Amino acid sequence: MSFPDVRMRRLRRTEALRAMVRETVLGPERLVLPLFVTEGTGVKEEISSMPGCARTSIDLLTEDCREAADLGLGGVILFGIPATKDALGTEGYREDGLIPRALTAVKAATPDLTLWADVCLCEYTDHGHCGVLADGQVQNDETLDLLARAAVSYAAAGADVVAPSDMMDGRVGAIREALDDESFEDTVIVSYAAKYCSGFYGPFRDAADSAPQEGDRRGYQMDPANALEALREVELDIEEGADVVMVKPAMPYLDVIRMVKDEFGMPTAAYQVSGEYSMLMAAVERGWLDKDRVMHESVLGIRRAGADVILTYFARDLAKALS
Ligand code: PBG
Hints:
By secondary structure, the chain is α/β, with parallel strands linked by helices.
C-alpha cells in the first residue's frame, strides 16, 4: 500500500495524535546539570563564554541544587574551581577540599537530589593535565592512586555517583577497588568511557581555568576519528565495574552513542559539553536560533541516538520547558 491510501500526515494532525505515537520521550529525570563550585561566600560569577552558567560558592550552590531537586532533575554534577593548584592536584583529593565540602553542604540541604562528582585532576593541577607529569608526560599508573583517593573522599562526603573523566587506563577498576575497601560498595561509577580529545571543551576550560599549560590531551583522550576504539574503551570499563558508560561530547558523536547502546545495552550517558552549549547560545543571543526549540531538539537527538542520561547545561531550562 502506498499513497493515496497511506498518508503519513494523518498521525501528525493533532498534538494528541503526535504524542500518542511519539517514539522518544524526554523527562527531567534523564537530565543532569553540571555546576561549577568555587571558594568564598555570596559568589556567583557569570561565565562569559557560557551564558546562564556561573561559578558559585557553596552557600549559593545549595540554592541551585534545591531548584534542581524541585525540577525533578536526574542529578547535578559538581566541578571544583579551587583557590590553589599544584603539580599533584592535591586539592582534588583532600578530604576537606572544595568538592567534599560542597557535597556535604548540598547533601544536607537536598538529601533527595542525586549528587555526582566529576573525578579528574585537571582542575586542580597547575599544569592543567588530567594526571601527574614526569618529563612532560602524563603518568598513568601514578595517577590512578590519586584518582581513587579523590573518589573515596567524594563518596565519604555524600556523592552518590563518581564520574572519572581523566581517561587514564585502569582507573575504573582502581576506583571501584578503593571504594569497596572503604565500604562504599553502593557508590555508582559513571565512567567517561569514550571521551574524545575535543575542541568543544573550550568554554569549560575557560570556566575552570584548566587548559593544559603545555601540550594537549591527545596522549590520553580519544582520537575523534575512531568509533571501534570507543567500543573497546567501553568494554574495558564495563569489565572494570562501570555502572554507566558515557560518550563525550554528544552531538558530534551520535553514531558512537548508538553503537555503544546497541553493542552493550548498558545504561548509557552522553555529555552535551560546554562548546555544544555555547555555540547554540551564541546563535540564540544573536537571534539566529530559537532557544527553546534548539535546546529541546538537540537533547532529544542525543536521547534518540541511545543515551539514557544526558549531562547538559540546558538541564534546568529544559526541565522547566518540559513541565
Ligand atoms: C575534566 C573534564 C572536562 C570536561 C568535563 N570533565 C574538561 C576536559 O577534559 O578538558 C568538559 C566538559 C565540558 O566541556 O562541558 N577532565
